[in-house]
From TrEMBL:
Keywords: DNA damage, DNA repair, Endonuclease, Hydrolase, Nuclease. The chain holds residues 10 to 331 of 618 of the full protein. Belongs to the DNA mismatch repair MutL/HexB family. GO terms for molecular function: endonuclease activity. Residues 200-318 form the DNA mismatch repair protein S5 domain. This protein is involved in the repair of mismatches in DNA. It is required for dam-dependent methyl-directed DNA mismatch repair. May act as a 'molecular matchmaker', a protein that promotes the formation of a stable complex between two or more DNA-binding proteins in an ATP-dependent manner without itself being part of a final effector complex. This is DNA mismatch repair protein MutL. The keyword DNA damage applies. It comes from the Bacteria. Signal peptide: none annotated. It comes from Winogradskyella vincentii. The keyword DNA damage applies.
């Protein structure tokens, strides 16, 4: 039902960057190894994601736009073992309610693929299509049927910054995937498959290399792998602060505080440390289902995580005589 989809869309899709996030995550869930992001006018007229992932059968392609049609959860057990980004099955249905969507998809083992066009939840065409293995989703004219939301969008500069932030998060979480990113025909990023350090340097520039201090820790409840920036390179903005928990970007004021505590006395007031930290915890000990856009998370034992994080960063800085 179109109304329910539009309401859900209000929660899932705030701006073009929300579409970028959902489409990129779907490609990752489909085990893509190469992902292209193509946008026009800061995503206001086009957001397209093309992947080489597992693709969809004709039935799955049609089903993917039904609300709560997720292929990723079969029972309540799965909710606690979640390895995929998506699980609500509402992103594509929500997006299709408020935009023109063109899906092309093909499974590797099939000869021909499927092309579907949807406008405001209505299927306007479905055809057999000659298309490469994988999936392309093009989202055009976002909010075409909700002028108030469309008018509320910020300037292209601001919307592009939100998109770039999402792209950074996904690209950093998946250095083993190659990404390209085009805006209005110009290439903004071209990232090959690489290791984590190379990915950070590729995204933030070659000068980043000399300022990274590795952080590694492995305890029963928490594994940490990543880098912090040397204190003298700390920033006036928080643009280089990344936590990934089980490969998912999250915001955590509490864990951010643990990093700041590790840098205590080393950084001037008003400056912020850079960090790129991958945390691995048992999925049973976290709850990621507290917000539809899924950047917030609840840990069972956050005090312990805080203590481990703070001490392992201090230890790493100490090894570099910082
Ligand atoms: P969710 O990701 O929460 O399952 P979505 O609405 O984002 O919900 O996607 C619905 C379904 O469509 C997914 O469960 C998946 O089966 C299919 N799907 C979406 N995007 C892709 C893709 N790029 N490749 C393969 N399957 C996809
Ligand atoms: Mg999804």
């Amino acid at each position: 039902d179109h109304v329910a989809n539009q309401i859900a869309a209000g929660e899932v899709v705030q701006r073009p960057a929300s579409v970028v996030k959902e489409l990129l995550e779907n490609s990752i869930d489909a085990n893509a190894t190469d992902i292209k992001l193509i946008i026009k006018d800061a995503g206001k007229t086009l957001v397209q994601v093309i992947d080489d992932g597992k693709g969809m059968s004709v039935t799955d392609a049609r089903l993917s736009f039904e609300r709560h049609a997720t292929s990723k959860i079969r029972n309540a057990e799965d909710l606690f073992q979640l390895n995929t980004k998506g699980f609500r099955g509402e992103a594509l249905a929500s997006i299709a309610a408020i935009a023109h969507v063109e899906l092309k998809t093909k499974k590797e083992e099939e000869e021909l693929g499927t092309a579907i066009e949807i406008e405001g939840s209505k299927v306007v065409s479905q055809e057999v299509s000659v298309t490469p293995s994988g999936t392309s989703v093009a989202v055009k004219n976002l909010f075409f049927n909700i002028p108030a939301r469309r008018n509320f969008l910020k300037s292209d500069t601001v919307e592009l910054r939100h998109i770039t932030d999402e792209f950074h998060r996904v690209a950093l979480a998946h250095p083993n995937i190659s990404f390209t990113f085009y805006h209005n025909g110009g290439e903004l990023f071209n990232l090959p498959q690489e290791n984590y350090r190379q990915r950070i340097v590729h995204v933030f520039g070659s000068k980043t290399n000399e300022r990274l201090v590795p952080v590694e820790e492995s305890t029963e409840v928490l594994k940490i792998k990543g880098f912090v920036g040397k204190p003298e390179f700390s920033k006036k903005t928080k643009s280089e602060q990344f936590f990934f928990v089980n490969n998912r970007f999250i915001k955590s004021p509490y864990l951010n505080h643990a990093v700041k505590a590790a840098f205590e006395g080393l950084i001037k007031d008003g400056y912020h440390p850079s960090y790129f930290l991958n945390l691995t915890v048992d999925p049973k000990t976290i709850d990621i289902n507290i917000h539809p856009t899924k950047t917030e998370i609840k840990f069972d034992d956050e005090h312990t995580l805080y203590a481990i994080l703070r001490s392992s960063i201090k230890h790493s800085l100490g090894q570099f005589n910082i």
